[in-house]
């Protein structure tokens, strides 16, 4: 039994060593480690590795934000009667979104209007009395005190009318606040209240954004940001959608973050379906050029975590393991394993 217990791990390790040895070419003709030579047919398709100059692209983590977004809240203390939209609904500018209970507000407005009418009537009477007293005083038929009383009454009722008018305007404003409308055309992001809840001034009810004003924002290192300018065209990669879209730099905040040594750069983008505020993106900015080795991806064979190519030299094929870099279109960068001028074969058969 003891022999069986230790024999299983030993056999497993031995098997792994055999596989590694095979991939290293141990069981083939002895050549340099990692290489295996074979005679080749001259008709096999080949490719000569060359150094190419291409733009150096810097990928910067970024986020999507809406330039035009708002949080809607109540301006008065009132119970919510109805909310006409839900999260995800599209709304138009001026559309009614929330209705608050307004019976008490209507009563206040009616009372204010009645008080204004009464004050207006009293002022009219006081004005007539003042004009009459002034005429009689000029004729010497009344004393100065009578005229002074008439003047005081006229001024008092005038002030009362002004106050009554202000109360009416305040009641009208309060009644208008009982209906909340959309300030622009957009999409409802969040609904934070329900009918029957008490809405107080400043309490969040709805949040909206305009999908046509989405933009990309990223903190760009200062050495690169100082090379940028408004209107420059860049690329933006949306990894969750697997898309790359065009963008235009619209703002570079003229103050660096002293801790990160970076500038906030904003880029406007065209409308694209499924883009939402808060999504992750990458701002792709060209930063000069670089010389790299690049080969067609068809020449690369992958075995698990390892990548290799067939090297053609003096009519013989050799297996060569390589380390890959970034891919672009049908080309892939070679970080190590090959030199400029090496000839590759498309197949070992």
CATH homologous superfamily (4th level) name of the largest domain: RNA polymerase II/Efflux pump adaptor protein, barrel-sandwich hybrid domain
Order of helices and strands: HEEEEEEEHHEEEEEHEEEEEEEEE
- Return residue spans where pLDDT drops below 50 for at least 5 consecutive residues: 29-43
Q: Please state how the strands of the largest beta sheet are arranged side by side.
A: 3-12-15-14-13-16
CATH architectural label of the largest domain: Beta Barrel
What's the β-strand tally? 21
**Portion in helices:** 25-40%
Question: What is the average of the pLDDT values?
Answer: 84
Strand percentage = 35-45%
Instruction: Determine the oligomeric state from the structure.
Output: single chain
Counting DSSP H or I runs of 4 or more residues, the number of helices is 4
Q: What Rg do the Cα atoms give?
A: 40 Å
Structural class: alpha+beta
Which fold name is given in CATH as the topology of the largest domain?
Answer: OB fold (Dihydrolipoamide Acetyltransferase, E2P)
CATH C-level class of the largest domain: Mainly Beta
Profile the largest sheet.
Answer: 6 strands, antiparallel, barrel
C-alpha geometry: elongated
Pfam family, one: Beta-barrel_RND_2
Family: Belongs to the membrane fusion protein (MFP) (TC 8.A.1) family.
InterPro entries: Beta-barrel_RND_2, BSH_CzcB-like, RND_pump_MFP
GO molecular function: efflux transmembrane transporter activity
């Amino acid at each position: 039994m003891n022999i069986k217990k230790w024999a299983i791990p030993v056999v497993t390790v031995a098997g792994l060593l055999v596989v590694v040895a095979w991939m290293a070419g141990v069981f083939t003709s002895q050549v340099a480690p990692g290489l295996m030579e074979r005679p080749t047919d001259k008709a096999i398709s080949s490719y000569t590795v060359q150094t190419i100059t291409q733009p150096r692209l810097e990928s910067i983590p970024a986020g999507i934000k809406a330039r035009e977004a708002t949080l809607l809240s109540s301006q008065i203390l009132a119970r919510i009667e109805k909310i006409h939209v839900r999260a995800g609904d599209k709304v138009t500018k001026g559309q009614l979104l929330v209705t608050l209970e307004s019976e008490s507000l209507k009563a206040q407005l009616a009372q204010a209007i009645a008080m204004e009418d009464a004050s207006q009537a009293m002022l009219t009477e006081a004005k007539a009395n003042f004009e009459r007293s002034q005429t009689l005083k000029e004729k010497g038929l009344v004393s100065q005190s009578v005229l002074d009383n008439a003047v005081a009454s006229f001024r008092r009722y005038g002030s009362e009318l002004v106050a009554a008018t202000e109360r009416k305007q305040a009641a009208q404003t309060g009644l208008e606040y009982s209906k909340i409308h959309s300030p622009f055309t957009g999409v409802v992001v969040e609904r934070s209240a329900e009918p029957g809840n008490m809405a107080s001034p400043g309490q969040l009810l709805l949040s909206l954004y305009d999908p046509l004003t989405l933009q990309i924002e990223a903190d760009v290192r200062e050495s690169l940001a100082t090379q940028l300018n408004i209107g420059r065209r860049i690329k933006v990669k949306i990894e969750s959608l697997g898309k790359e879209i065009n963008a235009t730099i619209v703002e570079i905040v003229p103050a660096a973050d002293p801790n990160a040594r970076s500038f906030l750069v904003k880029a406007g983008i065209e409308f694209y379906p499924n883009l939402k505020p808060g999504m992750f993106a990458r701002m792709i900015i060209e930063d000069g050029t670089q010389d790299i080795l690049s080969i067609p991806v068809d020449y690369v064979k992958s075995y698990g975590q390892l990548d290799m190519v067939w090297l053609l030299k003096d009519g013989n094929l050799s297996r060569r393991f390589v380390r890959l870099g970034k891919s672009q279109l049908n080309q892939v960068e070679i970080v190590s394993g090959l030199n400029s001028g090496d000839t590759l074969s498309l197949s070992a058969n």
